[in-house]
Amino acid sequence: MLDWDDLRIFLAIARHGTLSAAARALGVHQPTMGRRLVALEQRAGARLLQKTPRGYTPTAAGESILGNVERIEAEALAVERRITGRDVRLEGTVRITTVESFAAEIVMPILAGLRQRHPGIDIDLVVDVRNLNLTHREADVALRMARLEQADLTVRRIGLLGFGLYASPSYLDSRGVPAFDRSGEGHELILTQPELMAGAEMAWLTAILPRAATALRTNSRYNHRAAALAGLGIACLARYLGDAGPLVKLDPPTPPPVRELWLGVHTDIRHMPRIRAVTEALAAGVKARADVLAPG
Q1: Which residues of 129-161 are buried (b: 16+ CB within 10 A; e: fewer)?
Q2: What is the pLDDT of residues 27-86, one digit of tens each?
Q3: How many domains does the structure of the chain reveal?
Q4: CATH number, domain at 190?
Q5: For a Cys staple, 294 with which of 25, 162, 217, 288, CB 3.0–4.6 Å?
């Protein structure tokens, strides 16, 4: 039977990436970490961690048991609380991924409140337009504008995200309000890269203004807003970005799309105390900003 203390060694190295960091986290000597890991792998009959230039990472065998070991850890902490009568502080690192503008404008205040309630939880925030793979532990929690389709995830819709059509006063002074019955002829658009054009808001924008030229392409929604503010063209922005500045909100002939906000977590870790604390805080925080995210 595998020893829980050895499994703790495996879990610490997997989380921290180096023997020295894992040893500090557990309060043991570094040589002890290495010996215990070798002994665990010999008893298990499989290599669980592999050393790479970036540190230790789980092998396929290690990945397959990581969620199980984390659940054992959560249960062990629950037993400790029950026996001692103490409330063990929630602690550990939780890696969240979402897009940059949403992270900065919406998620950051939520995380500030979370840290006040649970100072032992450390947040690792990865901003990326790509859907990181939660199954491969690229992140623990994902907040996205489309339903996550990866295997073994628990997902729930936590809100809606509205969009609008915006231009700067200087752009409208020089170009005028676009004539939608002329398909945007004589106007310019701010768009994403081609591989991101399948998003509902980009498809809608190019459908209502098909004859407009393209002034700029960027995968940064902050730069969409910056480009609109600079007078480069017309942008379709999330309401929390467009309504916050001096841009003029236009009145298109068809309503802009409303996208769903989805929260995803790997099924194996969804009940871990720190994971639940983070997901509940995100869900409640997004709900509280509903009037900003999807006004009306």
Answers
A1: bebbebeebebbbbbbbeebeeeebbbeebbeb
A2: 778 888 888 888 888 888 888 888 888 888 888 988 888 888 888 887 776 665 455 444
A3: 2
A4: 3.40.190.290
A5: 162
